[in-house]
Design goal:
Elements (H helix, E strand, L loop, with lengths): L2 H8 L14 H13 L11 H4 L3 H6 E4 L9 E4 L9 E8 L3 E6 L15 E6 L3 E7 L15 E4 L6 E4 L12 E5 L7 E9 L3 E6 L3 E6 L6 E2 L1
Antiparallel strand pairs: 1-6, 2-3, 2-6, 3-4, 4-5, 7-10, 7-13, 8-9, 10-11, 11-12
Length: 224
């Protein structure tokens, strides 16, 4: 998530994302969670509702954080001033001891998206903060399954590597061995993986010895 990139794209502009009541503060949040978090549907409500009754899709991307100690990129939900039960909302730019600076739209409340209502950064007293929505840490993608990796590298610091006969490698022993590969002699050896045997061995095609099986689990073999 790149808050600064988002800010650079939208600062000074206006957005009517949901085409309801013109250029409101929540429109900025809707485009933020779409562009930066891939959440295009399932989020609704007035500004204060993002804290009081957030939707399940929203909570899939954000954690509710009580208090006013915002971090850059947090969605900041503010209590409305007198006569405004709907609240206000923005995105944290920075904080001071008493103020949270937010990227906001409709700061003046006219809904025009121009002048003071255009997307801008403004300081708000922390006393107005109802709560925060903090982006959940990104989950790293799982490693590809073994079958998705196409080659095996036998590093050059290994002097020898046993090659077993295809079809009799479930319980390898010396009688199953058909050859010995010599990675050190060639500065390492790379082979295309033709098939996996469980998660512990692979079938390869060698130039000198034909097809065979090598053990990889618990070894220095590198699957790429």
């Amino acid at each position: 998530m790149a808050y600064q990139d988002f800010k650079n794209r939208w600062l000074g502009r206006r957005i009517d994302y949901d085409h309801v009541y013109a250029y409101q503060c929540v429109d900025l949040i809707l485009i933020y969670i779409k562009e930066e978090f891939g959440l295009a549907t399932g989020v609704w409500g007035n500004a204060i509702d993002y804290w009081n009754r957030p939707s399940a899709p929203l909570l899939g991307k954000f954690n509710l954080v009580a208090g006013s100690n915002a971090q850059q990129g947090d969605i900041v939900v503010l209590n409305g001033l007198a006569g405004n039960p709907y609240g206000h909302i923005g995105i944290c730019e920075s904080v001071t001891a008493t103020t949270v600076n937010i990227l906001e739209q409709n700061g003046a409340g006219s809904g025009t998206g121009t002048g003071r209502d255009a997307i801008q950064v403004r300081g708000i007293p922390k006393s107005r903060v109802a709560g925060l929505l903090r982006p959940k840490p990104a989950t790293p993608p799982p490693p590809p399954p073994p079958a998705a990796r196409s080659t095996v590298f036998l590093p050059g610091n290994v002097q020898s590597w046993r090659l077993y006969r295809v079809g009799s490698y479930l319980r390898p022993n010396t009688s199953d061995q058909i050859a010995t590969l010599a990675p050190a002699q060639f500065g390492g050896l790379t082979y295309k993986i033709e098939a996996w045997v469980g998660d512990y061995a692979v079938v390869i095609q060698t130039q000198m010895f034909g097809r065979g099986v090598i053990w990889v689990k618990g070894t220095e073999a590198q699957i790429r």
